[in-house]
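Same chain as my last thread, 179 residues:
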Amino acid sequence: TSVLLMIAERDIGQTGATYWWSTSGEGIPPVSRAQQRLEELFTDKGFAPVNPIAARGSVSLQGVGGSPEPAVAPACQLAAQLDAAFVVLGTAVLAPSRNPQAPAAEDIQCSLNAQVIEVKTQAVLVQAATYALGRQTSPRGALQEAIDKACSQLADQIADRFFQQQRNSRAYVFRLLFT
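reply #2:
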């Protein structure tokens, strides 16, 4: 199942978000760390994530490029151009968290929310949110741990609900014959 991931990330101290579909600035914006980790996890769960860097050169980003949280319709149009059956729109917010019981440790929280949208119908199939805390002696280690935990939890939530919904979405057609 092909899926286009659109995960914007706001890092600690950052006023704006990092997202690969941005059309502001020069050059190609980086793919967020949360998106990279989710791509790996989604691949492990049997999905086929679309490569966003390859996508940038082959499609127009005008409808979605100005916002880290694009509207459903333009995101679905972009996903359709890339032959994706589903699009995952989400945001990851990283923030410091203080623990008075462990002042020597660095604590960073990752808040991650997303929705899975079917491209053809533009219907939201799954909504999920998670929060994870990373605790390490270094800020970089705490940041990576928070992202890894939050992404793992979100990928599990989405995959479980998605596959459950796919199993339960059988369509039945009844034909009545009047004689």
